Amino acid sequence: MEAVVSVMESEGVDTVFGIPGAAILPLYSALRTSGIRHITVRHEEGGTHAADGWARVTGNVGVCIGTSGPAGTNMITGLYTALADSIPIICITGQAERAKLHQEAFQAVDIVEIAKPVTKWAVQLKEAAQAPWVFREAFRVARSGRPGPVLIDLPIDVQRGLCRYDPELDGPLPVDVPEPAPERIRAAVDMLMSARRPLILAGGGVVIADAADELRALAEHTGVPVQVTLMGKGSFPEDHELFAGMAGIQTQTRWGNQAFLESDLVLAVGARFGDRHTGNLDTYRQGRKFIHVDIEPTQLGKVFEPDLGIVSHARTALAALRAAAPARQAGEWAARVGQLRRTLVRRDDFDDVPIKPPRVYRELNEYFPADTTFVTAIGLYQIWSGQFQHTQLPRRYLVCGQAGPLGWEVPAAMGVKCAHPERTVVAVAGDYSFQFLMEEVAVAAQYRIPFVIVMVNNEYLGLIRQAELAYDMNYAVDLHYGEGGIDHVKVMDAMGCPARRVERPGDIAGALEWAAKESEAQQLPVLVEIMVEREANAAMGPALDAVKEFEPVPEVVAAAD
Question: What domains are defined for the chain?
Answer without folding.
Answer: 2-169 (3.40.50.970), 182-343 (3.40.50.1220), 357-538 (3.40.50.970)
